[in-house]
Every structure is written in structure tokens, then in C-alpha cells.
Amino acid sequence: MAITELVKANRAFTSKIAGQSVLLAVEDAARVRDALGLPLPMGIPLAFIEPVLDPLGDLVSRYARTHGPFLTSEVAARFGLGVAIVQSALDRLGADGRVVQGEFRPIATQGGATGLEWCDAQVLRRIRQRSLAALRAEVEPVDRAAYARFLPAWQHINSSLRGHDGVLTVIDQLAGVPIPVSAVEPLVLAVRVRDYSPALLDELMASGEVLWSGAGSLPGNDGWISLHLAESAALTLSPAEDYMPGALALRVQEFLSSGGAYFFQQLRLGLSDTELPSNEALTSALWELVWAGRVGNETFAPVRGMLDGGHTAHKQKARTPRLRPGRLPGAQGAGRYAGLSRPATPMGSPMVGGRWSSFAVATEVLEPTVRAHAMADTHGPLRGSHARLGCRGGSARRIRLNVQGALPP
User: Fold this and answer.
1) Could you write out the three-class secondary structure of the chain?
2) Per residue in 369-400, pLDDT tens?
3) What keywords tag this UniProt record (predicted)?
4) N or C: which end of the chain has fewer CB within 10 A?
């Protein structure tokens, strides 16, 4: 009824475009006549049949404003024109900044057609704004109570993890996270793996599945270390960037960077080409490189040995000392090797036990997004801890995950 009244009032008229009947506003009479060659009915006021500057450009621009991303062929089919004619009009609009060209939709949504698409600049801006608003709504942080319920379960606190698989699961989640040495086993691994014992970690390191690296020293006999899965260590190792090694530490680093793993005495003798370092100096240089994240050891024994040497941030259980030949109480000098002279070395010191090797320092800087994905499993919702792990970019790069759906009721 309303359409009939508009036609009778001479405010609209009917015609055919590309074989389809359409209703056109009388204000577009000159545009469809000059752009599409449509005949006009009698009775249209003279003011609406005066030629316009760019009739086809006006029609194509209106199509762009009322549609999302589209192909040139879609506009040509809509108006019953050749693709080249429509392409020329779109090029003019693009030069004026009224439409933009690009790949906006997956090919599957284009009916199998391929090629660059067009979109009105204002429409594209609205699409981006609404898409960002929808994404922000999906990642809004939950309240503190919900986060407090979620975090212990996410971190496997008092979980049913057991054995080697349980330790690997925990290390996979905490890979690259700096933890105080004195807290790694009693406060991190032991509370997450029900049957945890140091032997489980030792066996995983002996098999080459797990490695550890230093991340800075702490007062007393303590420091920051990180555990890593060997297969993904390139993502989680984070050596100090501004580290300037001392003279002996530099010699050790250069020697180990050539490849291979060396026991303490092998390393000491390998450095004797210029000057044989003392045991104390070499031990200090090794741990300087450890805290800088440059070298590591095949076992966790040096870390435990350091904890046994003095004050730490967390209390440690007393360890049962191991007896060695010739060291039995009341039998000084007795034993299988009693007659052999021993060099004055710290070979008996657990701080330098095992074989030492160098971590390959990556020359390629990882994209922050890659490192952020590697951290997402560790923290769940991320706020500021990414800075401690070397993910730069400020608050604009902080990731906040919505965990509401993962929480128990």
C-alpha cells in the first residue's frame, strides 16, 4: 500500500535493472538514466532529470555504503554492467579514499570467487570497531573470587599428578618461569606432584627431556632458575641481554660455545692454554654464567649443592651426606683410594658436579606474540608477569583471558 502511494505521488517509480523489477526514488532518475541507460517514465519533475556529475560513481558508492566487503563482479551483476566499467568507477572512488581494496573475507564466504575485494571506508571502520568490541567482551577479566577459584586448579595445586608424567606436565606449564632455587622442589614440584621425589627430576634430566637455566642470583645461597622442556627450550630460554662477562667467565663461555659438555676438571684443563684458573675462580665464573642464563648442567646436583651451602629464602630439609671411599668416620686415609694423592680440586663439591655446557644464544628475536602464547598456559590470565619473562610491549600487549567458562559453579 505504501509503495503504491509513493508511485501515485510521483515520489518513486518502477523499472528493471539486470532483469529484476526494482523500485527507484525519483531523486535517482537522472543517475539510473545516465549510468544504466534506463528509460524514465513520464511525469518526473524536471529538477530530477538534470544530469549529475558522476552518476555511476554515485550508484556504486551507495552500493558500497550499504554492503560489507564485495567483489567487483558482484556490483557489475547487480547493475547489469560490464566488470571493466564498474572497475573504473571503483578506481575513481578508491583514489578519493571513499572505498578501500583488500582481502577482507575468507574465500569460502565469497562463493568460491577469488580476487581483491572492495569496501566502503566508513563501513570497514565500523566493522573493525564492532569486531574489536566483540573480542574485548570475550576476554573481559573475571572478578577476584572467580580468579582465586580458578588459579589453584590451573596450577595443579594438590592435584592427582604422579610420576614422570606429572613432573613433565608441571614443567611444561611453568617452562621459563623464574622460581627461587629454594622453592623449586619443596614448594613447586612437591605440591603439584603427589609422589614427587628428587629422583624423578634427576631421571628426566638424565634422559635429556628437561633442562634448567639460571635467571639471576639472590642474597645468600639462592637464586632464580627456570625449568624447560628440551623440545621447546628455544621459546622459554631467556638469557640476560645486557650481561658483560668477566675475563675468566668470557674464556669459559667461549670454550663451551664450541660445543660439547665437560666435567669441572676437563673444563679447567681446557682453559690451561693461557693460565690454569684456580678451582675457586672457575667455580665463581661458572656460576656467574649460570645466573646470566649462558651455561647449564646436565644434572640438578649443582643447584642442590648450592642450597646446602648456606642461607636461602626458603627453609630446606637437611640432606643425608653421602659417604665416599676413604672418608668413612674413624677411618681417615683408609679405603680403596687412600694411597692415591688427590689434587686440590672441588671435585667433591656438589656445586660443580656433572657436565657443563653452553646454551645456544638465539640470534633471532622472537615475535612477542609467540612468547606470549608460550606463556599463556603458564599463567592463564596474564597481566604484569609477562614483563618478567621478557615479553615487551607495555599494557597494549597484555593478554587477559576470560576464564569464566572454565570455573566450577
Assistant:
1) CHHHHHHHCCCEEEEEECCEEEEEEHHHHHHHHHHHCCCCCCCCCHHHCCCCCCHHHHHHHHHHHCCCCECHHHHHHHHCCCHHHHHHHHHHHHHCCCEEEECCCCHHHHCCCCCCEEEEHHHHHHHHHHHHHHHHHHCCCCCHHHHHHHHHHHCCCCCCECHHHHHHHHHHHHCCCCEEHHHHHHHHHHHHECCCCHHHHHHHHHCCCEEEEEEEEECCCEEEEEEEEHHHHHHHCCCCCCCCCCHHHHHHHHHHHCCCCECHHHHHHHCCCCCCCCHHHHHHHHHHHHHCCCEEECCCHHHHHHHCCCCCCCCCCCCCCCCCCCCCCCCCCCCCCCCCCCCCCCCCCHHHCCCEEECCCCCCCCCHHHHHHHHHHHHCCCCCHHHHCCCCCHHHHCCCCCCHHHCCC
2) 666 665 565 555 544 444 444 443 333 333 33
3) ATP-binding, Helicase, Hydrolase, Nucleotide-binding
4) C
